[in-house]
Amino acid sequence: MSIARFWRETPRRYNLGGSKCSVCGTVYFPPRTVCPECTHHRQSIEKMTPFHLSGDGEVVSYTVVHDPAEGFEMQVPYVVALVRTVEGPTLTGQVVDVDPKDVRIGLRVHATFRKLREEGKAGVIHYGYKFAPSEEDGRPPAPRRPAAPTPAGEPSERSPTPA
Ligand SMILES: [Zn+2]
Known about the structure:
The protein is mostly beta strands. Helix content is about 5%, strand content about 35%. It is built from two helices and eight strands. A five-stranded antiparallel beta sheet has the order 6-5-4-7-8, with helices on one face. A three-stranded antiparallel beta sheet has the order 2-1-3, with no helix packed on it. The longest helix has 7 residues, at about 5-10. It is globular and about 50 Å long. The chain binds zinc ion (ZN). Zinc ion binds near residues 35, 37 and 38.
C-alpha cells in the first residue's frame, strides 16, 4: 500500500497520537512507555494510556526559513515554529496559511495534516502535521484556502461517516 493511500485509509493516523500518564497526568508526544515525571518510573509502565492531542496550541518560538531543506524549495520563505500544545507537549512544525511576517509569539494555531514533501521523481509523499492559525485568534491572516484543512474526501473526526 502506498503511503498516500495509507494515510487516506487510516483517518486515525491524522491524529496526534501521544500517551498520557494516568498517575500524574503528564501528556507525551511522541508517546512514551514510561513516565519520567513519576518518581517510580517502573510503576508508570502500566499506567501509560494512548492520548490524542487536540492539535491546539500557541507559538512559543519560530524561525523564518529562507534557505530550504531539500524537498522544501518551493515553499520558501516558510516558518518553522515551536508550538506548545494545550496539553503540554511542545511540537515543532511548519506554520502554513499565514504570511511569515504575521507569525508571532503567542499566535494560536492548530495542527492540520498536509503533504510535507515529495521525494524526488519516485514521488514518495510524506504527510504529517503542520500548523495553521486558529480561527479564534482574532487576527485572521492572509487569504485562507477554504477547504484546505481536510484533504478532499477525507472523513474527519468531527464528521464521522455514517455506519
Ligand atoms: Zn507520571
